[in-house]
Amino acid sequence: MATDMNIVEVILREIVKPSSPTPHHFKTHELCFIDHSVPLMYFPLLLFYSHDNSIHDSRSVGGKDQPSNDKDLEKPDIQLLRQFLAAEPESQGARISPLLLVQATFFECGGMAIGLSVLHNAMDAASLTTSLNSYIYSGKVKSKEVCVRNFKPTKIAALQCKAASESVKNPTRVEAVCALLWKSAMEASESNKGSLKPSVFCQVINLHPRTAPPLPENLVGNLIGKFPAKLE
Questions:
Q1: Which residues of 2-21 are buried (b: 16+ CB within 10 A; e: fewer)?
Q2: Which residues pair with 101 in a beta bridge?
Q3: What is the CATH number of domain 153-231?
């Protein structure tokens, strides 16, 4: 059930400035044509820390001393999650607001949510991941225990065999996993709506390490490729 009530109380807003002045030649950043083609919006990311400082992604909410999060995993409340962000992804303020907005939300259970809103024209998901990794391993974040959900290699191999067909005899690991996710999503949609509806699946690819020669890992910007698949 969607949450209409605002459960987050804002107690402080502040602008964090760099510890030293920005060099003159860094004050203006020229966007490339790919950056200009990206919709003007905030790229959202939510990280949830339980009371023991382990890190979870936006698919789990709250600390370990709270009730099970299975319901949140099955049917995440988007309106609730939006309250943990400093700005709506489609906010018109993206035209004039800072490039990065951060909101820290503290729960009664002792856990915490960190909501990041990054201007998509400035960076893509790969760039944001690089920035977060640099921050975490710089020593400013003490805990490095991260909750990650992985597919076991044996399970992926079994998926590849199951996904093989006359048209795709040797599906890659990514193709096999994406096929499973898309198939599950379509089955859930059919179960909820009573019939199979047209569906589009879009796979986004990080092109940073795929150029010749590969680009530096700390490069910031938008460099992605994508290919859609459609079921009518």
A1: eeeeeeeeeeeeeeeeeeee
A2: 117
A3: 3.30.559.10
Neighbours of 211 (CB within 10 A): 10
Give the sheet arrangement for strand 112-119, strand by strand. 55-56, 42-49, 112-119, 100-106
Domains of the chain, residue spans: 24-140, 153-231
Q: Degrees (nearest 5) of the Cα angle 119, 124, 127?
A: 105
The predicted pLDDT at position 4 comes to 59
The token pair that represents 60 in the structure block: 């789990």
pLDDT in tens, 145-200: 555 567 788 989 999 998 898 888 899 998 898 888 899 888 988 888 888 888 88
CA–CA distance, 117 with 103 (Å, rounded to integer): 9
C-alpha angle 35-199-89 in degrees, rounded to nearest 5: 35
Tokens at residue 62, please?
């709250």
**Under 8 Å CB-to-CB from 67, ≥6 apart: which residues?**
none
Task: Say which CATH architecture domain 24-140 belongs to.
Answer: 2-Layer Sandwich (3.30)
Query: Does residue 213 have a cis peptide bond before it, meaning omega lies within 30 degrees of 0?
Result: yes
pTM value? 0.64
pLDDT digits over 66-97, tens only? 433 444 545 667 788 888 888 888 777 766 77
